Amino acid sequence: MSNKDNHRQSRAERRAANEAAAKAAAERAAKERRQQTIIGACVLGVIVVLIAVIALSIWQPWKNSKSSESSSSNVTVQQAYDQLQKVKNKPTTANSKGGILLSKNGVNKKVSGAPTVAVYMDFMCSGCGSFNRLVDPTLEKMLDAGQLNLELHPMSFGDRWSSDNYSTRAANMLLYITEHDDNPNHILGFISNMYADDFQPAENSGVTTSDDQMKKQATKAGVPKKVADAAVTDKYTAWLDAIDTYTPKRSELWNKSGDLKGQMTTPTITINGKFWDMNQSQSVYSDTKSGLLAALGIEENKVGVEGTMPSIGENGKPIAPSADK
Question: Which of the two ends of the chain, N or C, has the fewest CB atoms closer than 10 A to its terminal CB?
Answer without folding.
Answer: N
